[in-house]
Amino acid sequence: MSTGRTSDIEEHGRSAIGDRPPVALGYVRRYPWMKEIEFEILQRRLADVASQHGRTLGTVHIEKQRTEPRAFAALLTELKDLPSPAVIVPSKTHLGRWDLPDSKYAELRQATGAEVIVADGFP
49: part of which helix (H) or strand (E)? Predict the structure, then answer.
């Protein structure tokens, strides 16, 4: 039966089905010296921060130096499809210098308008 709605998403970005929290995506620059256990802890921290902000952690886009900027481009594409776009990063440095107009941070904000949430305490 149709309710006349064109979307499951309400104004606040919550799903009308089950009142699920909106999704936040992750973006991490994985440095060569990071051990697997450190990376796993970092991903759990991103999920915790998402929850603290009333969101669910979705895809974590992982950028490795040899593949840059492939993961960032995928992040931008996925953010454009979210009704309430947000990205969680371990620290500001994962998006470059925030004060530069050609930084990843500036590009992300301009291209998607996404909220950027920083989970401080990580490299």
Answer: helix 36-52
